[in-house]
């Protein structure tokens, strides 16, 4: 998406000019498992939701990840909390979300 991140109408035109349509958009961060990053992760998800709402496509969220399996249950619970909140926000703007089933760490 690069330079079109804040310009969905221009991105849509670029796609249309090439006979393409946006099927989905992925948003990932540092794994959504760190409570200290929650507000930053939610802000990024809100931005992604705003972008995909323009296209009526699916938002794919990256799977939970961490470079360590220490405190695994707590980290997974944090990610589940994040996904639940994003699902509520997605429903309000009419966007479907999916969860990538794995990550590169855990």
Q: If you compute it from the alpha carbons, what radius of gyration comes out, rounded to the nearest whole angstrom?
A: 15 Å
Total of helices:
3
Coarse morphology: elongated
Helix content: 40-55%
Coarse structural class: mainly alpha
Strand element count: 3
Main pleated-sheet profile: 3 strands, parallel
Taking the alpha carbons of the first and last residues, their distance comes to 27 Å
Arrangement of strands in the largest sheet: 1-2-3
**Average pLDDT level:** 91
What does this structure look like?
The protein is mainly alpha-helical and 106 residues long. The protein is built from three helices and three strands, in the order αβαβαβ. The protein is elongated, with a radius of gyration of 15 Å.
TL;DR of this structure?
By secondary structure, the protein is mainly alpha-helical. Helix content is 47%, strand content 10%. It has a three-stranded parallel beta sheet, with helices on one face.
